[in-house]
Amino acid sequence: MDFYEVVRKRRSYRVYKPDMPEKDKIERILEAARLAPTWANMQGVHYIVVQEPENVRAIWQAIGQDQKFGNAPMFIVGIIAETSSGTNKNGEKYYGVDFGICFEHLILAATAEGLATCWIGWFNENKIKAILGIPNKYKVMDLTPLGYSTKSKGEVTDRKPIEKIVHYEKF
Ligand SMILES: Cc1cc2nc3c(=O)[nH]c(=O)nc-3n(C[C@H](O)[C@H](O)[C@H](O)COP(=O)(O)O)c2cc1C
Hints:
Blueprint: H1 3-9, H2 23-34, E1 46-50, H3 53-63, E2 74-81, H4 95-112, H5 125-132, E3 138-146, H6 162-165
Bound molecules: flavin mononucleotide (FMN).
């Protein structure tokens, strides 16, 4: 799939078929995330691949958005420690930027593989940490189900027009 087609086709999918994604696809997706740029190349993001049915069920419960979602066969959970990235001259921490870049690489690669994802940023972090044995210093930033969607949503359309967000020379 051409890059721009991938960008247009990436949508948030919340209902999945039970089929587990193929191992080689998962490996390529994780490799795309590995190659992402980070602050001073610190590479602080870790990815937890969750496929055991018992753990997958527990993660769904920790997300607690059942009314919107249908079960997916697996999750990829993204974590980073604040200390695994830098701080800019204004004292702003950059771990969130690093994380976003890496995780979007992963999400776009999944789209290119014909797989469905959904960024999920709203969940019970303590429960997720307990289920997956994540050490305290890490923040669970976002996670995504990974699988095949029951139906296609088509391409992204509901965005602001370009002239409302792009400014040439001055704001
Ligand atoms: C950082 C982030 C966190 C998100 N968290 C959630 C979430 O907790 N639950 C949910 O249903 N969707 C979540 N979404 C999905 C957004 O609602 C969705 O990307 C947006 O509405 C645009 O729709 P699209 O992804 O289909 O283009 C999240 C998206 C991002 C980027």
